[in-house]
């Protein structure tokens, strides 16, 4: 057992957080408590659970000042950004509360006993049920919305599962205060002991994933760490689902028409998207396709990058890795540095980097994700060059297409080209600033994620549920939502979808 | 390249099928064709796809006589059983056709642009899209409904994916005729080249799973083979989902009240369920909890088993493995053999086996799945003994509870005890004879399956889909189902579920 360090990325100064790493014994105790809590939670109604989620949201807002203060010191992100992010965290809990009340996520189905082409069929009723204690790994870049009080925690709880959170090592104090906020609210609301737990330290994270009581893992982080956790899962006696969001370069394509008609505006929008939060967003457009003959966007972008102040990166590892990747990209020889990043006077600060490469020179080596304020400009002369270049870019969470309304066929061709490579396509906008809503999809083909699910938006709840069927069950043994007289949730009855009646 | 043998399990006589194993080069060609077919299929409407599924169903029925004949010779299953199974295969294609027409499986969601607590939100539209060429492994025990013309093929095609099928080595001729039926119908319907393919031989199966163009694998078979395929996936550069149905012992519990009030009827029902299709069903109740003081069920069951004719097992490997497992269970010493299986005069035939053990003696070693006509009777004295015994039984597809209407509390306690261990609970019936319907769940916790999905019933389609989101897309670039004026499918619009308008 040792204590964790907390570091201010603006100054690079580290202090002892006073937070101890969690022992293997403590983790075994937490997961046993979680299993007991799971049994208890199963007896509660959906209304009880949505009430819990709203209580957690209210608690986060009550503790806003302390949370934002701690996060500023540990992440170097601005107060404005962090305030918005905390609002997002609270909003996520409330949106999942709405979804739990609405009940469509249960996917309730009733097939009454009937004659079928195969003879008499029994009564079969099905809905989704929670799967058990969930391990959630907080990410470095969203100390609230993808961390202790993040979307994985909210969706796992909404589904009816207890949650055990691995605090991210780069914001331990924010994690602890977040956890205290959530657990105080949960306790006051009457949630069972074991509904929530937090663990600290790398070994604790590994222990959590290996623990036999853990039913699934939610993870947002590097491909490298994701691979390590997946290896631990492969060695378990009972494999469990791993929902990983791992890596994304998010190609953005600017057509000739868009470049001509609104090049200046795109340069500014793209600059804001590339450098917001110091470029440390999983949806940051890391590769921008710009026509070879453009004389507006690239110069404007370069001017903005040259004028930009240094911003702190989240921690020294991210800054070191950013430097190494930048070095590799330049050393490769095919990409040319248009703006070279420079370190600020203190801390882990850095100015933006801009590289440029010809589309025909693009290789997989040049497409490595640089987590931080860097964009690789790819100059192209034809749709064919874009198509060929897309083939070497790793699959991503998003692709973005900027086109002119007159370029209908080109926009359609580009849409077809990116469809199999990403999970979301954005038109004439930017992929950062992911909307939290019912229909958002934040997930994509490997290595963006390893799943057929989103981690943002209401349908993220599906990750932490499994189907269960009751055959010829006496009414009193069925969940309320599957009894004949219930109308509280949408259901498919004998093949026909029926709305809830409120 | 070599040719495959076809064996009649009733006689044990093998002949050359004339079917060659598929080469690595041929597989690479098939998966390239499948990728081209995938692009083509994406441009087709849902109505086109449901028409294809119905054409395949009609073709199977047209070819019924040849299909059933071949399957009798290769599986030793009865003509009655195989005719019903072929009806089931055709029914599955038609049920998925209905589901495709209905469109609820798309999970369409529209969030119009709106002000949100986090500022202005873009227009986001989401639905499920197909994922690419699917590898399907036929199983030995359902030469139609879980093989070439099975539910995995039907659901993968329904989702919009091409399918490449690995024929099961124990019915190569049935597989080839099934494939010819499907591909003739598909060709006549106008489906693109590459929509369907079949491969033969173990190495071909391994090559298929390793092929970079394959997007997912559907598998029904042994835990052993499942593990091998999962290892191949772990070695791929790009991991893909594996949907495996692997192993299940399906505990069945008879309460004291049920034993008293209808012991005789239960003995006959249980015997039919244990020995139907020579016990080679993944939902066969392999373990039956019977009260220690019962004097009706066990004697009646034993009498029926002693009187039973030998039935052929599917192949020599299954019979050999059955013999080994039976030997281990008896050698363990705690289980007592009540009826010893004996081989018939020729072929792979065998009479049923009945073993008995005291609930307090049950160990994990005694719960090994014996694929074939074997049941382990567990004699118990209390609910507590059942609970403790359930803990050593591997998680399963199903659990079954027979109780008397007067035993409300006991039935509830038993339901709670099995809930986390299975995917379906059956009351006062039998788990075999899985109903193919909208709400069926055929899946359970590891090692029953490794997924949070069913492989039987309409929702099996979800395995072969992934979410995709369009942000601020021009209407003409959206799928029809996501355009504002479309009312052909159920959709969630701005959080509110709306029915389709026909």
CATH topology of the largest domain in chain A: Aldehyde Dehydrogenase, Chain A, domain 1
CATH architecture of the largest domain in chain A: 3-Layer(aba) Sandwich
Pair with the biggest interface: A-B, 79 and 80 residues
The CATH class of the largest domain in chain A, by name, is Alpha Beta
**How much of the residues of chain A is beta strand, in percent?**
15-25%
Calculate the mean pLDDT score of chain A and round it.
Answer: 97
How many strands of chain A? 23
Which structural category do the helix and sheet elements of chain A fall into? Answer: alpha/beta
Mind describing the biggest β-sheet of chain A? 7 strands, mixed
Structure overview:
Two copies of one chain form a homodimer. With 502 residues, chain A is α/β, with parallel strands linked by helices. Chain A folds into two domains: 26-113 and 121-246 and 451-465, Aldehyde Dehydrogenase, Chain A, domain 1 (3-Layer(aba) Sandwich), CATH 3.40.605; 252-427, Aldehyde Dehydrogenase, Chain A, domain 2 (3-Layer(aba) Sandwich). The first copy, chain A, contains 13 helices and 23 strands. In chain A, the strands form six sheets. Chain A has a seven-stranded mixed beta sheet with strand order 15-17-18-13-12-19-20, sandwiched between helices. A five-stranded mixed beta sheet of chain A has the order 21-6-3-22-23, with no helix packed on it. A five-stranded parallel beta sheet of chain A has the order 9-8-7-10-11, with helices on both faces. In chain A, helix 3 (64-75) runs antiparallel to helix 6 (172-189), helix 4 (79-102) runs parallel beside helix 5 (151-159) and helix 9 (256-275) packs parallel to helix 10. Chain A is globular. The termini of chain A are far apart. At the A-B interface, helix 4, strand 3, strand 6, helix 13 and strand 20 of A face helix 4, strand 3, strand 6, helix 13 and strand 20 of B. Strand 20 of chain A pairs parallel with strand 21 of chain B, so a sheet runs across the interface.
């Amino acid at each position: 057992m040792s204590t964790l360090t907390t570091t201010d990325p603006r100054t690079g100064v580290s202090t002892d957080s006073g937070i101890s790493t969690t022992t293997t014994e403590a983790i075994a105790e937490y997961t046993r408590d979680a299993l007991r809590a799971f049994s208890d939670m199963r007896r509660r109604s959906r209304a009880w659970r949505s009430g819990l989620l709203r209580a957690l949201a209210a608690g986060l807002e009550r503790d806003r000042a302390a949370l934002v203060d701690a996060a500023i010191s540990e992440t170097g992100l601005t107060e404005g950004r962090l305030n918005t992010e905390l609002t997002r965290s609270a909003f996520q809990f409330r949106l999942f509360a709405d979804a739990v009340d609405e009940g469509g996520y249960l996917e309730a189905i009733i097939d009454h006993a009937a004659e079928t082409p195969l003879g008499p069929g029994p009564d079969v009723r099905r809905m989704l049920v929670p799967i058990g204690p969930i391990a959630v790994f907080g990410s470095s870049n969203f100390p609230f919305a993808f961390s202790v009080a993040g979307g994985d925690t909210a969706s796992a709880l909404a589904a009816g599962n207890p949650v055990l959170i691995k605090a991210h090592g780069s914001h331990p104090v924010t994690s602890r205060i977040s956890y205290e906020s959530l657990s105080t609210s949960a306790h006051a609301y009457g949630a069972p002991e074991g509904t929530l737990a937090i663990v600290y330290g790398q070994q604790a994270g590994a222990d959590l994933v290996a623990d036999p009581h853990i039913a699934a893992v939610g993870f947002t982080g590097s491909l490298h760490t994701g691979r390590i956790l997946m290896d631990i899962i492969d060695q378990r006696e009972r494999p469990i689902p791993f929902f990983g969001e791992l890596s994304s370069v998010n190609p953005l394509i600017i057509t000739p028409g868009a470049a001509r008609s609104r090049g200046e505006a795109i340069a500014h929008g793209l600059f804001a998207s590339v450098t917001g939060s110091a470029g440390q967003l999983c949806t940051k457009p890391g590769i921008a396709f710009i026509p070879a003959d453009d004389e507006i966007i690239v110069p404007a972008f370069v001017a903005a990058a040259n004028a930009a102040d240094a911003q702190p990166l989240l921690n020294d590892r991210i800054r070191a890795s950013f430097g190494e990747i930048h070095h590799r990209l330049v050393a490769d020889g095919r990409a040319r540095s248009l703006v070279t990043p420079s370190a600020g006077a203190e801390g882990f600060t850095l100015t933006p980097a801009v590289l440029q490469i010809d589309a025909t020179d693009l290789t997989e080596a040049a497409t490595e994700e640089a987590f931080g304020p860097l964009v690789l400009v790819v100059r192209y002369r034809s749709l064919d060059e874009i198509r060929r270049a897309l083939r070497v870019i790793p699959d991503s969470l998003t692709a973005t297409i900027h086109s002119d309304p007159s370029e209908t066929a080109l926009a359609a061709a580009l849409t077809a080209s990116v469809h199999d490579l990403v999970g979301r396509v954005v038109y004439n906008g930017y992929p950062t600033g992911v909307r939290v809503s019912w229909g958002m999809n934040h997930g994509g083909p490997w290595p963006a994620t390893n799943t057929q699910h989103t981690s943002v938006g209401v349908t993220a709840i599906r990750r932490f549920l499994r189907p269960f069927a009751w055959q010829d069950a006496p009414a009193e043994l069925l969940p309320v939502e599957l009894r004949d007289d219930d109308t509280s949730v949408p259901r498919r009855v004998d093949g026909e979808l029926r709305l809830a009646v409120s």
